[in-house]
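Annotated sample (chain length 212).
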Amino acid sequence: MAIDGIIFDLDGTLWDSCRVVAESWTGIMQKCYGEDRIFTADDIKGIMGLAAGDICKKLFSRYGDRAMEICLGCMNGELEYIAEHSGDVYPGVEEMLSELSKQYPLFIVSNCQDGYIQCFFKCTGLGRYIKDIECEGATGLSKAENIKLICRRNGLEKPVYVGDTAGDEKSARAAGCRFIHAAYGFGKAEAPDGVIKSPAELAAIEEENRNV
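Output written by the structure step:
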């Protein structure tokens, strides 16, 4: 698998922030909107990787004309809470990023709001391994278009995208990337080019291919 860069999804691939996002949204709903609605980690797991419009339809449609306002209020308001409490980084992620960064430039493309990836860096200190990032909240573009943007900006011709859902796979294909499925994450894939059951396995896959 000759490649010149590795692009990562974030949620379900590098960390799991479902618990802290649920806590944050529950607090925001009570404090800012007077709603005694309790979000659970499973609620958040069900929308991880979706664009803001799809999250709004799935979890906030009951609020009618205010649905998108409240959805964005929760999404933007969560950043401070996450920065203080952190999500759960998957075991082996730092070792994997450290090893792969010696061989390839590494990137993150997510459907998150602007500032979320920066929160991940602040909480974990893992930003030192990542060359460039992009997200829907910053560009207004789909994940596929943001992957293309990262590729153009960094001169990538043979990148691979690592993600955990069928949506990630679809976006990678649309952007012309190979796709590796992080099967330990939140979703499934249809026909990935490779499957890893832990972050450590990605470094092993690339080591094997370099030696072929």
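Annotation: The chain is about 50% helix and 15% strand.
Annotation: The longest strand covers residues 106-110.
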